[in-house]
Write a structure and sequence with these properties.
Pfam families: RVT_1 (PF00078). The protein is built from 11 helices and 13 strands. The chain is an alpha+beta fold and about 325 residues long. The longest helix is centred in the middle third of the chain and has 21 residues.
């Protein structure tokens, strides 16, 4: 089960006292800590009225777009993130977007584990005077269970959905990533329509500029989060990616609409999107482990590189008697 929690105006409602307490617990240079505390002192809001200037003390809030706002929020959120959760419970966060991943073998155990995790999280939010928006929170059940457990926050049921969006990636309850690719196809179609208004196949931008826009804008948007949904790719996913890429290939080449997609890819020297997606997923998954970021196809090894905005698979020349681990060390 995946539970997404939305905190109401997290940065605006963050208490300055919570930030000060978090700074006190830091084992850091005292002068730096005192400097950060000085930023929080004597904060007032002034408002010019007909009767003069009105002022009141500011006790909460750190601007989300400020340089120090994210740092202050991370100091407070680090407490709940560093909590010793059971092995079957994982808490993930990016800024104020929190997601619980809970795994259990039965419905009763799943409900108990999820509610226990939410109880601990509620203690943290109550301590820092933060509120959860139940209307914007949701959960999905990734299981073959017909009826999953009902999860509640403060006696209010958290709605269950077939999919949820987190950091630009749509996670569905079947983990086939089809809803994500369909949403991506809609955005890519809108992008293609906007591009068609300023550049046609025979007018507007030059061919090299249309090609550059494809690699730097369209392809980057389509392959967002590929390390999660492109490993491995199903045949249906490949068909969706090819249909997305075809529109841009026609715009770049200026060819007839009856031209096959494979021919367009060969003429323009552009790799199929599903190969680029698999290559990027392999690269991202292998890089943290210090392995050689390669992609194997037709018995040959390729390395995914990005050069001048273009993603390419460059063949690796590996001698027959060369140890694979030694090649990995050379490419790090």
């Amino acid at each position: 089960m995946v539970i997404s929690l939305d905190i109401q105006r997290a940065f605006d409602n963050l208490q300055l006292s919570s930030i000060r307490n978090s700074l006190d617990k830091l084992k850091f240079n005292s002068k730096t800590t005192e400097t950060l505390k000085d930023v929080l002192e004597n904060r007032e809001v002034l408002l010019q009225t007909s009767q003069g200037t009105a002022a009141w003390s500011q006790q909460k809030g750190c601007a989300q777009g400020s340089c120090s706002g994210q740092v202050f929020w991370n100091l407070v959120a680090n407490k709940i993130l560093s909590e010793k959760w059971p092995p079957n419970i994982h808490l993930q966060a990016f800024a104020d977007d929190f997601v619980f991943v809970v795994a259990e073998s039965t419905r009763a155990k799943l409900k108990s584990a999820a509610q226990d995790a939410l109880s601990i999280f509620k203690c943290w939010t109550d301590k820092h005077h933060l509120q959860i928006s139940v209307e914007k929170s949701c959960n999905i059940l990734i299981s073959k269970l017909v009826n999953g457990p009902t999860i509640k926050w403060n006696n209010v049921t958290i709605k269950r959905q077939q999919s949820l969006k987190y950091l630009g990636v749509t996670i569905d309850n079947k983990l086939n990533w089809i809803p994500h690719l369909l949403n991506t196809k809609t955005k890519a179609t809108l992008l293609y329509q906007n591009l068609s208004r300023i550049a046609g196949s025979t007018w507007g931008l030059k061919k090299e500029f249309r090609r550059h826009l494809y690699f730097t804008v369209a392809e980057r948007m389509i392959l967002h989060g590929a390390s999660a949904w492109a490993y491995p790719l199903s045949s249906r996913q490949q068909r969706i990616l090819i249909s997305i890429q075809r529109k841009f290939l026609l715009s770049i080449s200026g060819a007839s609409r009856t031209t096959s997609t494979a021919v367009l890819q060969v003429i323009e020297g552009i790799l199929p999107l599903h190969i680029n997606a698999q290559a990027e997923a392999t690269y991202v998954r292998n890089f943290p482990q210090k392995r050689i970021p390669t992609y194997k196809q037709d018995g040959y090894f390729y390395r995914w590189v990005q050069n001048r905005g273009e993603n390419r698979l460059c063949p690796l020349r590996i001698p027959k008697r060369t140890n694979y681990s030694s090649v990995a060390r050379q490419t790090e």
